[in-house]
């Protein structure tokens, strides 16, 4: 189990709109220390965090890398859960402002490292490029929202054919078997994250992270999430009630409605959903959702589901292509800030800050 191969998204370009859980990656309890970076595009925020992550990994510290869903080659945050340290990009679209400044959170202003005078004469171009990038993201959001209506339709169609009582009974028996109970325990803590995202590179899912977190998986194979979501929600409540800290992995398309995975690090166990977006390269036995679903009833809607699937794929493909165009525009915007930055000073600061962050 490699604990330094951990990747989570903290935000998703979901069918419900931009969905951020940045505010749920730490606790304002007096122990966590959070550093929020403010600065324009191309000011070295991601490179700065990559340096910190490399330093932490070199020290053998458990390091969570949080890529950006709009550019998975860049980082949105780095989390050291055992050290209770977080550094994150606090700029739009996942704007984060300190709730307890100076006590829990500290702002790092990367604007200190650029030369304002180098923007002179380029103002209109920067504004135009920024607006173009925002327009492309809005177009992608419309494609994703339309796909979400069809994904939700397939889910609700399958749910109507699912024996909920039988599924809940199975979930109870499963939880009782694999999650030890302790009536003396207080309620556990929950961390909410994503493993999948709609990105300029297509639909990405970092399912290998689960194997880096735990040694055992219970896999629910469910194309529509109608049964697996019932099982995941039951497992979530059961584990929390019995005092376990858990990682709840939300569905990147419908995060308010669906939970994909429940990870219980203390038990080295994860309950996971397998479908076309989450595929596990393992010989572990699958629990097939069809045992809870009436195939005859679902078959009555086969043409509608087939049409929806085809339309979903086309809409998501268009969304990813539009996000790719948006990234190309964003890259042009970054050039203006890169040319104005004093990276020598910033890199020197990164080396000094890495020790403060991880030690």
Characterize this entry briefly.
Helices cover 41% and strands 22% of the residues.
Primary descriptors:
single chain, 359 residues, alpha/beta, 6-stranded mixed sheet, globular
Model description:
- This protein starts with 5 loop residues before the first strand and ends with a helix.
- The strands form 4 sheets. A 6-stranded mixed sheet has the order 1-5-6-7-4-8.
- The protein is built from 8 helices and 16 strands.
- The radius of gyration is 22 Å and the shape is globular.
- With 359 residues, it is of the alpha/beta class.
Helix and strand layout, with pairings?
Elements: E1 6-7, E2 11-14, E3 17-20, E4 33-38, H1 45-58, E5 64-68, E6 71-80, E7 85-89, E8 105-109, H2 123-160, H3 164-178, E9 190-193, E10 196-199, E11 202-205, H4 208-213, E12 216-221, H5 228-241, E13 246-250, E14 259-264, E15 269-274, E16 286-288, H6 295-299, H7 302-340, H8 343-358
Parallel strand pairs: 1-5, 4-7, 4-8, 9-13, 12-15, 12-16
Antiparallel strand pairs: 2-3, 5-6, 6-7, 10-11, 13-14, 14-15
Helix pairs in contact: 1-8, 2-7, 3-5
Q: Report the count of strand segments.
A: 16
Rounded to an integer, what's the Rg over CA atoms?
A: 22 Å
Shape: globular
Structure classification: alpha/beta
Integer average pLDDT: 93
Helix content: 40-55%
